[in-house]
Amino acid sequence: MSRVSIVIPALNEATNLGRTLRLLKALDPPAHEILVVDGGSADGTAAVARAFGLRVLESPRGRAVQMNLGGEAATGDILCFLHADTLVPDDCVEVMMRTLADPGTACAGFVSLMAGPETTRWGISLHNYLKTYYAPLLFRPRLFFKGLRLLFGDQVIFCRRSQFLECGGFDPKMVILEEADLCLKMVRFGRIRQINRVVHSSDRRVVRWGSFKATAVYMYIGFLWGLGASPAYLKRFYADIR
After folding, report:
1. Does the pLDDT of residue 84 top 60, yes or no?
2. One-letter-per-residue 3-state SS of 192-218
3. Which of 120, 163, 152 is nearest to 219 (CA)?
4. What range(s) does the Glycosyltransferase 2-like domain occupy (predicted)?
5. Stretch 221-237: mean pLDDT
6. Which 3 state secondary structure label does DSSP give 102?
7. pLDDT tens string 53-77
8. Residue 82 has pLDDT above 70, yes or no
9. At what angle are helices 122-139 and 211-226 packed, to 10 degrees?
10. Do the domain assignments include residue 181?
11. Is 147 left (phi over 0), alpha (psi -120 to 50) or beta?
C-alpha cells in the first residue's frame, strides 16, 4: 500500500491552519505523515502545527521553495501539496492512492470549490474548473492531447514522490503558477488529471477583491502566462492575502 505524505506550505496561517489540521486528523485511512513547512511566520503558525503533534520544517519564504523542502523531507510514496486554508474530504488518502494506482496517471488534483462563511462562489469555482482544460488547450495544444491539464494550488495536487524528485520538483524561481509549471514537467510521466471530487478553498481573496476583479485577474494572469510573461511580472497582480 502506498504511503501519502501531506505537505503544507504556510506563512502567517495561524487563523486557518487549526481547522485544516483538525480535519486532517480525521482522515480515514490516515496520512502517513503531515509536514508543515513554515516560511517565517510571525503569528504563531508553527506553534499551531506543533500543538497537533506535527513536524514543522523551517524554510526560506517562497511557496515553491517550501514545497520542495517538504517533498525532499517526506518519507511517503505519494506527495500531496495542501494549502493551509483548504479543506479535504476524509477519504482523500484513499482517493489519492486509488488515482495513482493507474500507472498512466502522473499527477492529479481535485475540483476546487471556493467558499467562505457568507457564500459559495459558484461562478468563480466553475471558471477555475474550466481553466484546467482551456488553458492547456489554448497555449499547449500538443501537450493537451497527450494528457496535459493545468492544475493550481487550491486543487490539492498530488503525485508520486519519485517522479516529483526526478523532474526537479517546483521551480524555486516561480513566484506564481509554480503548480502549472510542475504539470508541464510531470506530463512526460503520464496524464495530468482533475478528478471528480471536491475540496473547499477559502474565498478570502475574492472577499478582498470582489468577484468581478478576482475573475478578471485570474484570466489576465493565465493569458499572460500562456504568452510567456515572467512570473515576477505576474506576481505584481497577485499580492499575498492573509
Report:
1. yes
2. EEEEEEEEEEECHHHHHHCHHHHHHHH
3. 152
4. 5-143
5. 76
6. coil
7. 999 999 999 999 999 999 999 999 9
8. yes
9. 10
10. yes
11. left
CB neighbour list of residue 38: distance below 8 Å, 6 or more residues apart? 10, 11, 45, 46, 49, 56, 57, 58, 59, 66
For residue 237, report the phi and psi dihedrals to the nearest 5 degrees.
Answer: -95, 5
Range of the domain at 166: 4-235
Within 13 Å and on the Cβ side, how many CA atoms surround 222? 22
Q: Lay out the sheet containing 78-81: strands in order across.
A: 55-58, 33-38, 4-10, 78-81, 157-160, 105-115, 191-202, 86-87
pLDDT at 203 over 90: no
Q: Say how many domains are in the chain.
A: 1
Q: Where are the alpha helices (DSSP H) in the chain?
A: 14-24, 45-51, 63-73, 92-100, 122-139, 141-144, 161-166, 178-186, 204-209, 211-226, 231-235
**pTM of the predicted structure, to 2 decimals:** 0.92
241 part of a folded domain: no
Other Cβ atoms closer than 10 A to 217: 15
Give dist(CA 110, CA 241) in Å, integer. 22
For residue 30 the three cell numbers come to: 490516515
In a domain, 106, yes or no: yes
Rounded to an integer, what distance in angstroms lies between the CA atom of residue 1 and that of residue 21? 23
Cell output for 230:
515572467
Q: Provide the CATH number for the domain around residue 84.
A: 3.90.550.10
Residue 240: inside a domain: no
Q: What is the pLDDT of residues 85-97, one digit of tens each?
A: 999 999 999 999 9
Q: What is the pLDDT confidence band of residue 179, given thresholds at 50, 70 and 90?
A: very high
